[in-house]
Design goal:
Residues 1-58 form the HTH tetR-type domain. Keywords: DNA-binding. Residues 21-40 bind DNA. It comes from Hoyosella subflava (strain DSM 45089 / JCM 17490 / NBRC 109087 / DQS3-9A1) (Amycolicicoccus subflavus). The protein has 188 residues and is an all-alpha fold. The protein has a domain at 52-182: Tetracycline Repressor, domain 2 (Orthogonal Bundle), CATH 1.10.357.10. Helix content is 76%, strand content 0%. Helix 1 crosses helix 5 (74-102).
Length: 188
């Protein structure tokens, strides 16, 4: 099944959704179309599973950075996670772009909810364990919801190629926004 998903990734990246067929996927995987149908009911079924695998990959990349950078400096952790998100999205960008623009029925953004849930869970836990590093009056759930929603919208534009701002500037702005939301006390 992994070979089929790898082939679907390649065909979708090279040809786009309209020209990505089960015949092309089977050919690229080196299997018969009948063998493909033993695992998947149609093209969209293959691509839904591919979207799930991409979400798992992005989640794994984020988790790996969390494990590597979990420590007393939350800004190092936040930067590493942000870098991991952009790197993983860049790796899958052609596929994600065509899924978002040409195949809305796949509901790709909804399939990425595991990433959001992981980020919110880690953020909430880290803030709870290191409360003194953050604003006293911080509404953790509301702040994380706003930050994640903003990141999701920015990443959607970034993947679709509609963001006029290059990656380094986006990352810098996201880091500053996160710092301001979590640490800067504007009442002083």
């Amino acid at each position: 099944m992994q070979r089929i998903l790898d082939a679907a990734h390649d065909v979708l990246a090279e040809r786009g959704y309209p020209d990505c067929s089960t015949n092309r996927i089977a050919d690229a995987a080196g299997i018969s179309k009948g063998s493909l149908y033993q695992y998947f009911s149609d093209k969209d079924d293959v691509l839904v599973r591919l979207a799930d695998r991409i979400a798992e990959d992005i989640t794994a990349q984020i988790s790996q950075q969390i494990d590597r950078n979990l420590g007393p400096d939350w800004q190092v952790l936040a930067s590493a996670v942000l870098d991991a998100v952009f790197d993983a999205v860049d790796r899958h960008s052609p596929v994600l772009r065509t899924m978002l623009t040409d195949a809305p029925q796949l509901r790709v953004l909804e399939r990425m909810e595991s990433i959001t849930a992981r980020a919110v869970d880690v953020g909430r836990t880290y803030i709870a364990l290191n409360r003194t590093q953050f604003r006293e009056e911080l509404d953790v759930d509301a702040t994380l919801a706003v930050l994640v929603a903003g990141l999701r919208a920015i990443m959607s534009d970034y993947v679709q190629g509609t963001s006029p701002i290059e990656q380094c500037r986006l990352k810098k702005a996201l880091r500053q926004l996160t710092f301001n939301a979590l640490v800067v006390d504007r009442h002083q």
